[in-house]
Amino acid sequence: MHDFKILKVLNFRNWFWIWDRVQVNGKLRGSVLISEDDSEEEIKTKALNNENVKKYTDGLNIVKVIVVPKRIVSIVVK
Q1: Is 0.85 topped by the overall pTM?
Q2: 3-class SS at 40?
Q3: pLDDT tens digits for the chain (78 residues)?
Q4: Torsion angle, CA of 27/32/38/39, rounded to 10 degrees?
Q5: Could you give the 3-state DSSP secondary structure of residue 31?
Q6: Are the CB atoms for 49 and 30 separated by under 8 Å?
Q7: Under 8 Å between Cβ of 23 and 68
Q8: d(CA 36, CA 76)
Q9: Rounded distance between C-alpha atoms, residue 6 and residue 73, angstroms
Q10: CA dihedral (38, 42, 48, 52) positive or negative
Q11: Three-state DSSP state, 70
Q12: Which residue, 41, 42, 44, is CA-closest to 72?
């Protein structure tokens, strides 16, 4: 059997990082690394600043940004 030791760490939640997928008009265009503690605004900012996402949103009107934390960011442009 394995001998597992349990460590107590303050602010343990800060250790978790998640890859969120980013869609533009329903097509996967990138992913961003987020912390579990990031707010929706921080996630939106990271998604909109992704280099590949910028290719598909530059010069277009962003109609809506939908954030499903720990899952996906969906950007609708026209």
Answers
A1: no
A2: helix
A3: 434 344 444 445 555 778 899 999 999 999 999 988 899 999 999 999 999 999 999 999 999 999 998 899 999 999
A4: -30
A5: strand
A6: no
A7: no
A8: 24
A9: 34
A10: negative
A11: coil
A12: 44
